Amino acid sequence: MKRFLNTLFVTTPGAYLARDGETLLVRVEQETRLRLPIHTLSGIVCFGQVTASAPLMHLCGEHNVLLSFLSETGRFLGRVCGPVSGNVLLRREQYRRADCPQKSAAIARSMICGKIMNCRTVLQRALRDYPDANGVSALRTASDNLARTLAFCGEDLPLDELRGREGEAGAAYFGVFDALIISQKEHFQFTGRSRRPPLDPINALLSFFYTLLVHDVTAALEGVGLDPAVGFLHRDRPGRPSLALDLMEELRPMLADRLVLSLINRRQLQPRDFIIRENGAVQLTDDARKEVLVAWQKRKQEEILHPFINEKIAIGLIPHVQALLLARHLRGDLDTYPPFIWK
Description:
CATH superfamily of the largest domain: CRISPR-associated endonuclease Cas1, C-terminal domain
Distance between the termini: 29 Å
Largest sheet: 4 strands, mixed
Oligomer: single chain
Helix content: 40-55%
Order of helices and strands: EEEEEEHEEHHHHHHHEEHEEH
Number of strands: 12
Radius of gyration: 20 Å
CATH class of the largest domain: Mainly Alpha
Strand order of the largest sheet: 1-5-7-8
């Protein structure tokens, strides 16, 4: 049985990953710091100056353990993975639908609706939890705008128009994201999304968690035999895991955005936990990155009732359940793809 939650994060500068039979070794300055049987892992994420031996890469490929390399700031650099498993007929159907604008739009519509509903839930929870906070009026307006956009997306729209509606929803949501920050306002403010590089702590956290989520979703898609590079909402681009980006859209508000807000509003992160580089880029300190990774793993271990399968599962399993549901839809077992709806 594959342990989906067992992802190893390697953040120690200079760490070296090696193989000893069927075991992963993590060495730092010639000293073995960790030994893990490879079958206990589903993924390995390496940050910064971390290297791996060729035999270790072979071992990961043989056991379908996704090995990802990220920069110190959390920017995705590359990954090593084994052969894509699964029925070839499933992948052929994925490619056929990706090549058909109408069929792509049908799947993309479900994902966009899920994303908008979950973004709206983030705003509504803030209204419920902090009814007297500043920005309540703006939050209500944004929530109403998301509801209207959701109604439009429920129609049979072409793919390009669906993308436009998604853009409108994203602008409304992030336009009031600063109002969701109720603690440490003198140090943490959000004026809009900035990437490559992130220019403030909130953007640095969002980008960091989105990178981790891409890793988990990619592993989930490969686990059911789908090609992470061929999407329906995000079009093909060399080196981009388009289907993983598709699937993570509906998961970002709950898995990433809410965790960012919790870490700031509960003062688990302080201004001292961030560094500003010469080019203006903001990144986490080494100690803060470790703390954030612990929070990410703890969040994934919490349980939630999945609204479609109506079973309690660990939050970390949501990408895998959604990948399975997407595969079932492509095989014809489900009439539509059911997005994850957070309640």
